[in-house]
Write a structure and sequence with these properties.
Elements (H helix, E strand, L loop, with lengths): L4 E10 L6 E11 L4 E5 L6 H8 L7 E6 L2 E2 L5 H7 E4 L13 H11 L5 H11 L16 H13 L5 E5 L7 H18 L2 E5 L3 H7 L2 E6 L2 E7 L11 H16 L1
Helix pairs in contact: 3-4, 4-5, 5-6
Length: 253
């Protein structure tokens, strides 16, 4: 169920000539099958842009992105959608307000011509800890945490191997954040997904991830194992500062 991911010298430039702005100068990292890998750093450091490149939501990048050794640009659209899915940051903006949960979950099944739709929808909704009756609810009838569970169910219903998680809990209350993170952890243990997660919260990385890359100004300063967090094992000054600030915040709270 899991896949490897490799990015090689991925870069994006907006504009041409003297006005050109290089947003991602050169990003390279690799993720093993079944690994949870995080991209951390301050706002505007390029974390979400990397996910948009991997998912081909942005296709103006240069370089190479390989999923199980296969260039993502060469994957047919249907195959790419079955292989990878993305969970967005805002559970309020990622669901259509006039579509029921049933419609949200059935749409991918119709597009991909999959059978047993009712059974698949029931399994997807119960897998994320919601009752089957929620299939007939609309987004305005759900809490933020419930909406994010529906968004995760939508991503899971095609049984992808790779989940791209863009700050999946930052718009939620603290108590609900823990529920969603535990849900993601359980799903990964059960199904062996590969996760690439964007977050600014190192406590989330410590809870969920195997390794993480610290980004600054569109570049990766350092890739570290999760074990580097408690003792601040970073060597790059910015990475040390980021982990230090996080540890200070955690000890104060």
């Amino acid at each position: 169920m899991s896949v490897s991911v490799e990015t090689r010298d991925v870069s994006i430039t907006f504009g041409t000539g003297p006005a050109a702005v290089r947003v991602l100068p050169s990003v390279s990292f690799s993720v093993s099958p079944g690994e949870c890998f995080a991209l951390v750093g301050e706002s505007g450091s390029g974390k979400s842009t990397v996910l948009r490149c991997i998912s081909m939501l942005t296709d103006i990048w240069a370089g190479d992105i390989l999923i199980d050794g296969k260039p993502v640009r060469e994957m047919p659209l249907i195959e790419r959608c079955r292989t990878l899915q993305m969970v967005f940051q805002d559970p309020y903006g990622s669901l259509h307000p006039r579509q029921s949960v049933r419609t949200v979950l059935s749409e991918p099944l119709v597009i991909h011509r999959l059978g047993d739709r009712e059974e698949r929808m029931r399994k997807a909704i119960t897998d994320v800890g919601l009752p089957v009756s929620f299939l007939d609810r609309f987004p305005h009838q759900l809490s933020g945490g419930q909406r994010q569970r529906v968004a995760i169910a939508r991503a899971l219903i095609l049984e992808p191997s790779l989940l791209l998680l863009d700050e999946p809990t930052s718009a939620l209350d603290v108590s609900v954040q823990a529920e969603i993170l535990n849900l993601l952890q359980r799903l990964r243990e059960e199904r062996g997904f590969t996760y690439i997660m964007v977050t600014h919260d190192l406590a989330v990385v410590d809870h969920m991830c195997d390794r993480f890359a610290v980004m600054l100004g569109g570049e990766i300063t350092e890739v570290l194992p999760r074990e580097a967090i408690p003792a601040n094992g970073a060597t790059h000054p910015y990475a040390r500062e980021l982990i230090g600030a996080s540890l200070e915040y955690e000890s104060a709270h």
